[in-house]
Amino acid sequence: MVSALCWSFHWFDHYDQFSSGDNAQVVCSGSVTRPELQECHSVLPVARCTKLGSPEIYAIKIITNVQEGKEEFESMKLIQVLDPDENHLMKMYECFSFQNVICLVYEILEESLEDFLIKNECKQMFQALKALKSIGVVHCDIKLDNIMFADKNSLKFKLIDFGLAVESKELPIGTEIQVTRFRAPEVILGLPLDESVDMWALGMVLACVYFGNYPFPSRTEYETIRAMVQIFGLPEADVLNRQLLLALPKSSLL
């Protein structure tokens, strides 16, 4: 292990959010007193750092559990014999201890595969929904299975399966569209529908990709809407009253 006295720390929860000059603290002055160092978490946010006297930027992983830090360091030493660039492996430069934590110095990388895929999928699917809205069409069945790679090399996605697509002006109130996992709340509540049901379904798809699971239970519509209410709160009174009026037979309103 080497000394910590030559590192300038720039603290961020994710080092790809760093902007030059923000909240920098220089280790050699002994002034690094970030409160998270006192937390019980074994791994703290990664710091984006520079080495004093050098413009090159590194990522430093801070591990408060000394034993875990040493074990990761030993594990990384096992792969040091391999060329990290040729074999697509993370490059470790050095390791040091500071204020009873272990700091592992890694190469700086751009973003995770998960973030990259979500970002690209978002842009392309937003464009797809914008185009559909421009001609007044609602897909009505956006789900994981209906977004596919057109070209893996260029990461181009396509929205498929328009078997349930309709013109937005023809969406009847009370119609049962979308599978339950991706069903918009206005569909469940029997409210007037428009293109926004596709946006909700796309949001559920992206949440699935990000979290690795469905955001809401889906065995019944009751379970689904109950979970939504727990997170977002009850719909506004005028929304519920509108649904009630739509559900009543016309004769009862006379």
The CATH topology of the largest domain turns out to be: Transferase(Phosphotransferase), domain 1
CATH architecture heading of the largest domain: Orthogonal Bundle
Name the shape in a single word. elongated
How many domain regions?
2
Can you describe this structure in just a few lines?
With 254 residues, the protein is α+β, with helices and mostly antiparallel strands.
Write up what this structure looks like.
The protein is α+β, with helices and mostly antiparallel strands and 254 residues long. The protein has two domains: 101 residues, Phosphorylase Kinase, domain 1 (2-Layer Sandwich), CATH 3.30.200; 136 residues, Orthogonal Bundle (Transferase(Phosphotransferase), domain 1), CATH 1.10.510. Strands 2-1-3-4-6-5 form a six-stranded antiparallel β-sheet, covered by helices on one side. A two-stranded antiparallel sheet has the order 7-10. It has a two-stranded antiparallel ribbon with strand order 8-9. Helix 2 runs antiparallel to helix 4. It is elongated and about 65 Å long.
